[in-house]
Specification:
Number of strands: 12
Largest sheet: 5 strands, antiparallel
Number of domains: 2
Radius of gyration: 32 Å
Distance between the termini: 126 Å
Shape: elongated
Strand content: 5-15%
Order of helices and strands: HHHHHHHHHHHHEEEEEEEEEEEE
Length: about 350
């Protein structure tokens, strides 16, 4: 009895105080974010990148006055002829080069369509399929002879489109999601749903949503096609011809030019300002980038800066030229020495009059 009382009166052990919860760090909250398990959110950065890149590529072609000019070394006609050499689809490329304006517009509009589809979430899988087809065609032509193959970006774009082709946009920031929601709300408000009619309502909503998406895509496509064609063809007609002059090397002389009827063009530089063995960049009267060369004490020459592979402007590398886009290289005279380029840089006629280097035509 006494022992029992003693045990009752004895002090009881107290529970330890609960530990304060650790602060919830940002990376822990991010790890638990359900959006990371949603393909639409995971693919959103890739979707934005591809959309912006292809939209920019298409618009830059439509805004380039040289793009549809069949006489310009920077035009799609010249690029396709260069790409046909060594391409596994050279016959198809050569045939397309004979219809350069149509082919060029199809490429530009395809890039714009793929870019807009990816950005807006409008027929995203179809846009991805177009992007993959364009990337594959570029890989088989302009990037086919790039060595090593991973220097060419087109193969990377080809595989970058595959997740969007497989998973779509997931309804994240997508126009078709907004259209579907509004169509569904309109269908429910106009015709109350009966207990036995959920399947019929779903079918009507899907049908109306598809029609609305198609109408919107058609309207955007028509505006882009009409506006883009008018802009591209208008700039082609208004822009000056960029036909390359005949190959010519100007011999340095401090006396006025005699014995020739070649018209004298713009002044490029003072002859004394160009060190022997160096090069100076300049812009032609047509607005095209070019390089002035001084290979020896008595000789000047000039070449177009447009790489004969894909038209990217080449850079002087001390003893030759290098294309930063796909790695083509040229010697100091403009002859192709490596990479995917097949032909030399287009020469530009120059001469020296009273100590100044001029272009001639």
């Amino acid at each position: 009895m006494f022992m029992k009382g003693a045990s009752i009166l004895a002090p009881q052990p107290t529970a330890a105080p609960a530990a304060a919860p650790l602060p919830d760090r940002a990376w822990q909250r991010l790890r638990r974010d359900p959006r990371l398990a949603d393909a639409g959110w995971v693919l959103l950065p890739l979707r934005v990148f591809l959309g912006v890149t292809f939209l920019y590529a298409g618009l830059s072609k439509l805004l380039d006055r040289n793009y549809l000019d069949t006489s310009s070394p920077l035009g799609v006609h010249a690029q396709m002829l260069h790409a046909a050499t060594g391409s596994p689809i050279s016959g198809l490329v050569t045939f397309s080069a004979h219809h350069a304006v149509v082919t060029g517009l199809l490429i530009a509009f395809g890039e714009v369509g793929a870019g807009l589809g990816a950005l807006l979430g409008l027929f995203t899988r179809a846009a991805a399929a177009i992007g993959m087809l364009l990337s594959l065609s570029f890989f088989l032509t302009v990037s086919w002879q790039t060595t090593p193959y991973y220097f060419g970006s087109d193969i990377a774009f080809l595989f970058a489109w595959t997740p969007l082709l497989a998973a779509g946009d997931g309804g994240v920031f997508a126009v078709h999601t907004v259209i579907g929601r509004r169509v569904r709300e309109g269908a429910r408000s106009s015709a109350p749903v009966r207990a036995n009619e959920p399947a019929g309502l779903t079918a009507r909503v899907e049908r109306r949503t598809a029609l609305a998406n198609g109408a919107l895509a058609s309207a955007i496509g028509a505006l882009v096609a009409i506006g883009g064609s008018a802009l591209a063809l208008g700039r082609r007609r208004s822009g000056p011809s960029t036909a390359a002059p005949a190959p010519h090397t100007g011999v340095a002389s401090n006396a006025p030019l005699r014995g020739t009827d070649a018209p004298i063009g713009e002044v490029i530089a003072n002859a004394s300002d160009i060190v022997v063995g160096s090069a100076k960049s300049f812009t032609t009267a047509n607005g095209d980038p070019a390089w002035l060369l001084h290979p020896s004490a008595s000789t000047f020459a000039a070449v177009s800066a447009a790489c004969t592979h894909k038209g990217c402007p080449v850079q002087w590398a001390g003893n030759g030229f290098r294309c930063p886009c796909h790695g083509a290289t040229y010697d100091a005279s403009g002859k192709a020495t490596g990479g995917p380029a097949q032909g030399p840089l287009t020469p530009i006629a120059v001469t020296v009059i009273n100590g100044q280097v001029h272009t001639t035509s």
